[in-house]
Specification:
Helix content is about 75%, strand content about 0%. It folds into 2 domains: about 1-50, no CATH class; about 70-158, Tetratricopeptide repeat domain (Serine Threonine Protein Phosphatase 5, Tetratricopeptide repeat, Alpha Horseshoe), CATH 1.25.40.10. The chain has helices at about 1-15, 20-35, 35-50, 55-65, 70-85, 90-100, 105-115, 120-135, 140-150.
Length: about 160
């Protein structure tokens, strides 16, 4: 994080209009300083500078969801999906945001989209399994769980 902070500050000093530098600064403020208000200002500045910056919308959506502002987070991820519809990472994160909002069917749909784009995106299998479990659909959770941990690998990231 120290290196990220230095790099973001250097980039901002060179060109304060770089959306990417504001996004990096937002992540430092959020993850290192726990400065939620400062991070949100930087996320918003990022998107004011570049409204079509997919990663900016994605990370801001993740931030909003973690802060419990699920509807806003989902809207940001929908914007991200409209900007980058072929990214399995974006679909996966949209699924995560929906799952945090307890919209499990919608989350499962997003995980399926991620897997349709990249069938070896194993974390989407694992997340899909968790969404089924959280709905009480334990039988449905078995197949994606088996795909997440092939050949007996049971090391979970959850």
């Amino acid at each position: 994080m120290r290196k990220a902070r230095v790099a973001a500050k250097q980039a901002l000093a060179l060109d304060p209009s770089l959306a990417e530098a504001h996004l990096a600064n937002a992540e430092v403020l959020l993850n290192q300083d726990w400065d939620f208000a400062g991070a949100e200002q930087e996320f918003q500045r990022t998107l004011a500078l570049n409204p079509n910056y997919s990663t900016g919308h994605q990370w801001y959506g993740e931030y909003l969801s973690v802060r419990g502002r699920h509807a806003e987070g989902i809207r940001e991820l929908q914007t991200t999906l409209s900007l980058d519809p072929l990214s399995p990472v974006v679909h996966h994160q949209a699924g995560q945001t929906c799952q945090q909002a307890r919209q499990y069917d919608r989350a499962i749909d997003e995980y399926r989209q991620a897997l349709a784009l990249s069938s070896n995106f194993n974390i989407s299998y694992e997340s899909m399994s968790w969404a089924y479990r959280r709905q009480g659909e334990y039988a449905e959770a078995i197949a994606p769980s088996a795909m997440a941990f092939p050949a007996g690998n049971t090391t979970s990231r959850a």
